[in-house]
Every structure is written in C-alpha cells, then in structure tokens.
Amino acid sequence: MNIPNRITMSRIFLIPIFILLLSIPFDWGSWDIGNQELPISHFMAGLLFILASTTDWVDGFYARKYNLVTNLGKFLDPLADKLLVASALILLVEMGSAPAWVVIIIISREFAVTGLRLVAAGEGLVLAASQMGKLKTVLQIVAISALLLHNYPFSYLSFPFGIICLYAAMIITIVSGYDYFRKNWHVMRDSK
C-alpha cells in the first residue's frame, strides 16, 4: 500500500474516534465562547474533523505529484470522504445543530452521484469530480467545522456562520448534483 493510500486509510481510522468524541458524554468541561458554551470534547472532535478533512487534500496532492494514483485509492478516497462527512452531518442532527432535511438532501446527492459513478465504472468510464463538486466539498467541510465548534469565533458576534455555510453547501450540492447528472446522463442512457 503506497503512502497516499495509507493517508486515506488514516482518515477512515479517525472516523470512529471522531464519532466517540461526539457520542459519549465526556465531562471534560467547556469554554465560554460568547453567548454559549463549547464542550472540550466537541472542540477536540472539530479539530479531528479538520485534520481528517485535510488528509483528503494531502493524499490527493501526494498521489498526483508522485504519480501514485491507484485503483484502490480511487475507491478508498471518495469512500473515506463520504463516511467522514455523513458521520459528521448525522451527529450534527443528533446534537440539534443541523436540520435533518438539509442533511438528507446532502447525503442523498452523495448516494446518487456514487450510483452514477458505479454505473460508469461498470462501463469502463471514470467520472472526474467537477469544480462545482470541489466547491461543494469545501463548503461542507467549512460548515461542519463551524457547527462542530459551536460557531466559534463567530459566536462572539452572534453571527450564524456555520448554518449559513450549511445552507450554501446544500444549494451547491443540489446544483452540482444536477450538473453532474446533466453532463453524464449518457452513462445511464447508454448502460447495458
């Protein structure tokens, strides 16, 4: 297993730790961040999410720079991304920090695009991510990070930065999903 794939695997292995930090009611105290409290366990989960999200960029950069792109990496990288983002979004719903309907739309789009990619793979085609899809990913990561950190540092201003980013991510998710299917509909139409 090459280095980019090991980095991707590390992202997958960080997900259970991330889930435990948000699921178990650790009593490690909290910090006052303006008009609310930020539990230390949520702060640690937020940092872990940011670290795991950063590995996505690192493994991709390393794989392209040193020509280490593999079929295993093509499979593991999007899987790791979807597991991390879906886990975070579902936990944010459980915490009452994200509306369930928004999360359902985002996760449904990910399932739909993954299905289209599977059909394309069956036809021997590889469907690359679009620039809009990359923007969607960045917005999702920023929104999730802000919500995990209870909107810090915007909490001092009572500005709902995290939820605004989440709604923006949802809109870009819908638009990029539509664009992805529009550009690649021939895969579904021509599949055998």
TrEMBL record:
Q: In which pathway does it act?
A: Lipid metabolism; Phospholipid metabolism; phosphatidylglycerol biosynthesis; phosphatidylglycerol from CDP-diacylglycerol: step 1/2
Q: Tell me which PROSITE patterns the record gives.
A: CDP_ALCOHOL_P_TRANSF
Q: What is its main location?
A: membrane
Question: For this protein, what reaction is catalysed?
Answer: a CDP-1,2-diacyl-sn-glycerol + sn-glycerol 3-phosphate = a 1,2-diacyl-sn-glycero-3-phospho-(1'-sn-glycero-3'-phosphate) + CMP + H(+)
Signal sequence: where? none
Q: Which residues cross the membrane?
A: 12-31, 43-62, 83-107, 159-181
Please state the Enzyme Commission number of this protein. Answer: 2.7.8.5
Q: Which UniProt keywords apply?
A: Lipid biosynthesis, Lipid metabolism, Membrane, Phospholipid biosynthesis, Phospholipid metabolism, Transferase, Transmembrane, Transmembrane helix
Q: Acyltransferase: is it a keyword of this entry? A: no
Q: Where in the cell is it found?
A: Membrane
Q: How does it sit in the membrane?
A: Multi-pass membrane protein
What GO molecular function annotation could you give as one example from this UniProt entry?
A: CDP-diacylglycerol-glycerol-3-phosphate 3-phosphatidyltransferase activity
Listed Gene3D superfamilies: 1.20.120.1760
Which principal EC class is assigned to this enzyme? transferase
Q: Which domain of life is it from?
A: Bacteria
Explain the purpose of this protein. This protein catalyzes the committed step to the synthesis of the acidic phospholipids.
What the record says about family reads: Belongs to the CDP-alcohol phosphatidyltransferase class-I family.
Protein name per the record: CDP-diacylglycerol--glycerol-3-phosphate 3-phosphatidyltransferase
**Origin species:** Sediminibacillus dalangtanensis
Annotated gene: pgsA
